[in-house]
Specification:
By secondary structure, this protein is mainly α. Helix content is 69%, strand content 0%. The longest helix is centred in the N-terminal third of the chain and has 14 residues. The termini are far apart.
């Protein structure tokens, strides 16, 4: 029998063995190792153990925990990592001790320890949280492991994780602090607010922004007071996050800050500020939104139109009417459609003016909006639109006249459209 056939038979026998049995096997330390990549049969003792750990995790039977805990001591890092992953999938509290031991073992590779942290987050419970907090207090733990522990604590959703996350907000590495700010919001524990507020002084703006977002998710009275503090932050993105949170709480103190953010050097900040002002719906923002309409950022101009429409009322419609003078046709189209939705005499008069716009898209939108408004006073404008050089505008005028109920539309309209 050749060496190849013997290895093939051995491999077949290995694969036919129960997974728990395969996990208990170890390669012969005295056996020679081959370095030739083509001779991958030397990996046969390892491959079945890896497969066995995966299978046991998929089965999810708590009776396999003992075998998987033994595999956490395997000589091969890949097997240890696969066993940790499987224990998380099984979800038994009996696995917590072994996983914490692996997590705290600094001699092991970060990838193994990270998998142990993830497994602990899946299992959850007081002991799992305690182990994850413990690694945060371990001076020799790497940034990767501390961040993994923070993410795992957040994933548990357990209020007992809040203290550990608050401690992580004081970590010397900003990556860990930022992760803690992001994760503590998932706990939503009002009791944690006092500890979170200290992080609003963090030197890293991304951490402060994450903390502001966490306070928004918590939403308690104490959290809102902290967000008011963040309105004065030196970074525009942090102020925006705080203002958006206060906007949801209908806190009008956010309006002044959002108005200021319409001039922020960052385009996405200006865009979100305009959107938030629309949702608040305060007429105090109209003057600033009209000023934003005169800016060079077309996306912000479009959002300003949306905001004016959401504010509505006489002042909001008047603002939209001014948008009909914007140099970009798409902005004028949006203003027309918004006024068509809002309705009213002021809106109808402004939209009628747009029937004569040099841009055919604006004219078509204006004719359609007049039909939607069902304004009898608009018939003269619509009849003139029947002579428009663009067929789509003429067709829109026909439909608008029909919606209004213009009685003599038949022959005259048909001849003009042709």
């Amino acid at each position: 029998m050749t060496r190849f056939s013997m290895n093939s038979e051995t491999r077949a026998a290995e694969c036919a063995s129960p997974p728990a049995v395969l996990l208990a096997r170890r390669p012969d330390p005295g056996a020679p190792r081959r370095n030739t990549k083509s001779e991958d049969l030397t990996l046969a003792p390892l491959a079945p153990r890896l497969a066995a750990a995966d299978v046991l995790g998929q089965i999810g039977d708590p009776r396999t925990v003992a075998s998987l805990l033994k595999a956490l001591k395997d000589a091969e890092p890949d097997v240890r990592q696969a066993a940790a992953r499987a224990l998380g999938e099984v979800g038994s509290a009996n696995a917590v001790g072994g996983l914490v031991e692996l997590l705290l073992d600094c001699s092991k590779d970060d990838s193994e320890r990270k998998t142990a942290a993830e497994a602990l987050s899946e299992i959850g419970g007081a002991d799992a949280v305690k182990g994850l907090v413990q690694v945060l207090e371990q001076p020799v733990s790497t940034v990767t492991i501390r961040e993994a522990a923070v993410r795992a604590l957040g994933s548990t959703g357990d209020s007992r994780a809040a203290d550990g996350l608050i401690k992580a907000l004081e970590d010397h590495d900003m990556t860990v602090r930022r992760a803690a700010g992001e994760e503590i919001g998932t706990i939503r524990d009002p009791e944690a607010v006092a500890g979170i507020l200290r992080a609003l002084q963090d030197p890293d703006p991304d951490t402060r922004r994450a903390v502001a977002r966490a306070l928004r998710r918590i939403g308690s009275a104490g959290a809102l007071r902290g967000l008011q503090q963040a309105l004065a932050d030196s970074d525009g993105t942090v102020r925006l996050e705080a203002a958006k949170a206060l906007e949801k709480a209908r806190d009008t103190s956010a309006v002044t800050v959002l108005v200021g953010l319409l001039k922020d050097p960052k385009g996405h900040v200006r865009l979100e500020a305009a959107s938030a002002l629309g949702r608040i719906g305060s007429a105090d923002a109209i003057a600033a939104l009209l000023e934003a309409l005169e800016g060079p950022d077309v996306m912000v101009c479009g959002e300003a139109v949306e905001a004016l429409a959401m504010i509505g009322g006489t002042e909001g419609v008047a603002g939209l009417a001014r948008a009909l003078d914007h140099p970009v046709g798409d902005i004028r189209v949006r203003a027309v459609w918004k006024m068509g939705s809002l309705g009213g005499t002021v809106a109808a008069r402004a939209v009628a003016r747009a029937v004569y716009d040099p841009c055919e898209s604006v004219r078509s939108a204006a004719v359609g909006a007049l039909g939607k408004l069902r304004c009898a006073d608009a018939t003269d404008h619509l009849l003139r639109a029947l002579a428009d050089p663009v067929s789509s505008v003429r067709e829109a005028a026909v439909l608008a006249l029909q919606r209004i109920g213009f009685a003599t539309v038949s022959e005259r309209v048909a001849s003009l459209v042709r």
